[in-house]
Here is the input.
Amino acid sequence: MANRPVDLLSLESNLWKQGYRAVAGVDEAGRGPLAGPVVAACVVFPQDLFLPEVNDSKRVSAKKREKLLDQILENASEVGIGIVGEETIDRMNILNASLKAMWKAVRKLKSEPEFILVDGNQRIPNLSLPQMPVIKGDSKSLSIAAASIVAKVIRDRIMFNCHRRYPEFSFAAHKGYATRVHVEALQAFGPCEIHRKSFRLVKLCQTNQIDLDTRPAAG
Here is the structure.
């Protein structure tokens, strides 16, 4: 334990001391994009694990995330992945869809965890397990940070595949986020099958009611 980065293991360590053996971290990727699914991951690590390079996925390069994904999958006790598509996002809104993806990720585990650390400020609905929301949890918990990496890599891979289907939108470059290139493509071609039709910016692009230099926030 002495060699572990305390800032990323303090939450897990406290729970282990309380007798919780299987502590899971849950995070999602893809709340902000205009297209594609939201992906969540749930990661449970053994108590004797040391992965010093694991960090918040936003602080790690894409190349390094791929490397860390392999390490996480090799060393984690369990990993669960939940995916919720754009149709469901449009039907239930992105917050509820993100929570549903997290719920699915937890339910994908073969063994039920004893405690869940959730990135953000909300608990996962419809789970009877003890859980604690952790704001900016991907920079405070090793298991949440690992979940953020898993979710990000899986979602990026999905968007690479979407790029092959819809090359005109350059999904491989921006992963569905509201970049200028993406918004210009939306204005030129209209939304494709994987766009989130309920998002305001997608709606505005359909009618060309947007100035690219003063565009509103996505969502």
In short: DSSP finds eight helices and five strands in the chain.
